[in-house]
Amino acid sequence: MKDEITNLRAQVVAQIEASSDLAEIENIRANYLGKNGKLTKLVKRINEVPKEEKKEVGLLINETKNTILAILSQQKNDLKETSRIWFDPTIPGKKPQTGSLHLMTQAIEEVANIFTKIGFVRMRYPEVEWDYFAFEALNFDHDHPARDEWETFFVDASAHPKLGKMLLTPHTSNGQVREMLRVKTPPVRMINIAKCYRRQSDASHYPMFHQFEGLVVDEGISIAHLKGTVDYFMTAFYGEDRQARLRPYNFPFTEPSFEIDISCDICSGRGCKVCKEGWLELGGAGMVHPNVLRHGGIDPVKYSGFAFGWGVERVMMMKPGLGINDLRTIYSTDLRYLKQF
């Protein structure tokens, strides 16, 4: 009989826990504890139990009965509590949260659209590159600091017999010679937007960043064309109230060379931790060096060109109203920050 009682207890507990309404609970109670219930019938058979086992069986029956009553009571309370929860099936459900394009994606699309309107064609070139296209063909000296492993991320792979070491491209300028070799005969009007990698990290630098590279090659191209393109972009992206300047500089792949600065939107030109002195450098520009044209298979006597390479993050940081004072926050995973855009 002890086995029957144990099996009965397991059976009734399972049924109670699976019940879903009060009527079902009452049926279970009557089926096991009622006048003709299964446990009641076992109690009536206690005289069949040997005398020496009656006490143990009696205690087991009482324990089983108390267990069933306790679980019945708990299940009743749970079902009553659930039934009190008000629910109107006609109320519209909660809409799932909608995502949006990341701030950087929005900036890249805007930059691409601005240059597309004046005839630039967007191209894509490798982010894992050879030294030749990233440095050698761009007129970098062999001992130039940028070719040092403390400035550039080199890939642990076998060097190419002609193209040199493999690296993560530190600028989108690697696309210049590739584009000239692809086109073969000017005109060239290319915009290349891609990720770049350098060993830098502070309020205005990040180890991985985006850059857009512009290249124009044709007969009679001059600094006036470069200045006009820069002014067009600045007005289209920032509005007519912002100031920009070309500052003489030195780059191996352009001659003459310039850095493009814009008046800082964060401090309104007073000087802050981002711009230091009221102007923020967006990137470099200049007339394509004759050696670079030669590497691209272009005759530097017949053709000339200009190029520029600017960081998308820096360009976007200076957009009016954003107030981003640390480039690193752009890559935050905090949804409270990202939802603003």
Pick out its properties.
seven-stranded mixed sheet; alpha+beta; two-stranded antiparallel ribbon; single chain; 341 residues; 2 domains; BirA Bifunctional Protein, domain 2
Radius of gyration, CA atoms, in whole angstroms:
38 Å
* SSE string, helices as H and strands as E: HHHHHEEHEHEEHEEEHEHH
Largest sheet: 7 strands, mixed
Instruction: Please name the CATH topology of the largest domain.
Output: BirA Bifunctional Protein, domain 2
* The CATH superfamily title of the largest domain: Bira Bifunctional Protein, Domain 2
Helicity range of the residues?
A: 25-40%
What's the total number of strands? Answer: 9
Number of helices: 11
Largest sheet strand order:
1-4-5-9-8-7-6
Give the overall shape: elongated
Distance between the termini: 72 Å
- What's the CATH architecture of the largest domain? 2-Layer Sandwich
Give the overall pLDDT as a whole number. 85
